[in-house]
Design goal:
By secondary structure, the protein is of the alpha/beta class. It has a single domain (13-259), classed as Rossmann fold, CATH 3.40.50.150. It is built from 9 helices and 7 strands, in the order ααααβαβααββαβαββ. It has a 7-stranded mixed sheet, with helices on both faces. Strand 4, helix 8 (175-182) and strand 5 (186-199) form a beta-alpha-beta unit. The protein is globular. Bound molecules: S-adenosylmethionine. Residues 19, 22, 26, 70-72, 92-94, 97-98, 116-118, 121, 145-147, 166-168, 171 line the site of S-adenosylmethionine (SAM).
């Protein structure tokens, strides 16, 4: 996929620098096989998918070159299958592994759009889908910016029954603007499913002012009260927050948000 620099004139310097650093880091992951970004040893790929309980029969059919290209926060498949959406928007889809797994697991799925800022991970996703034409037929991948969902002219995002964010929500700089742009992308009774960290304690002063502290999904984390406020301001409601793992000052959570 052709490289596109996503930098929007209206963004402040911190947000621009965050976008640049995230794009660089995730583009590098498509060629760097160790850790998330060597030398940091963070689980990724098949090992991580296995640890998070993704079904072995789905992991077995992945081509070997897809190993190392998954960075999910949790396994969303049981929840997604129970919701049985016909249309999905996967925001921060990376190399499209969740997109592919959804297409394999949901017989009634009609369309899935995956959006990510990393052209290199998206290219890996296209390579993966090339092996599976039946699933690929339902999936469209596009490069775009979560911080400017409303501003991209290269594609038209359609409203979907389910919006999935598996490890990408805490990388969004301005959550209020994000929710305002996201809400029209949910169908009536649509669900936003987030897997990410919530704060269980306040972060040290100044922690969130460092771009590096955002790259691993902590600097941009909210506590449950602040999340509830920004969700309510957008006219949405939190249905459930399920704590998967607590590692104070954060908890890895499943967050289910719906329209009223
Ligand atoms: C933790 S990874 C999760 C990827 C994928 N959901 C998975 O499970 O493998 C976060 C993803 O968010 C993407 N991302 C980060 N900032 C973004 C932005 N501003 N716009 C679009 N995608 C972004 C990264 O490129 C990366 O693919």
């Amino acid at each position: 996929m052709e490289e596109k620099k996503i930098v929007i004139a209206s963004m402040n310097n911190f947000a621009k620098e965050l976008n640049r650093a995230l794009q660089e880091m995730y583009n590098k992951t498509s060629t760097c096989k160790e850790g998330l970004l060597s030398p940091v040893a963070i689980d990724r790929g098949l090992r991580l998918l296995d640890k998070l309980g993704y079904p072995p029969d789905l992991l077995e059919i992945l081509p070997p070159e897809s190993d190392g290209l998954a960075f999910p926060c949790a396994n969303p498949l049981i929840r997604i299958i129970s919701l049985a959406p016909q249309s999905i928007l996967d925001l921060g889809c990376g190399a499209a592994l969740d997109a592919f797994f959804c297409a394999c697991s949901l017989p009634d799925l009609k369309r899935l759009t995956g959006l990510d800022a990393s052209s290199k991970l998206l290219s890996k996703g296209e390579d993966l889908l090339y092996h599976f034409p039946a699933e690929a037929e339902k999936i469209t991948l596009c490069q775009g910016d979560l911080n400017n969902l409303g501003e991209c002219q290269d594609y038209q995002l359609q409203a979907s029954d389910l919006i999935l964010m598996n490890g990408s929500f805490n990388l969004v700089y301005d959550k209020k603007k994000f929710f305002a742009e996201l809400t029209p992308l949910l169908t009536r009774n649509g669900v936003l499913l987030i897997y990410d960290f919530l704060l269980t304690e306040a972060l040290p002063p100044g922690f969130a002012d460092e771009v590096d502290n955002w790259l691993w999904n902590i600097g941009g984390a909210l506590n449950a009260t602040d999340l509830e406020k920004v969700v309510a301001d957008a006219g949405l409601k939190i249905v459930e927050i399920n704590e998967i793992e607590r590692i104070d000052p954060v908890a890895r959570c499943e967050i289910i948000i719906s329209t009223y």
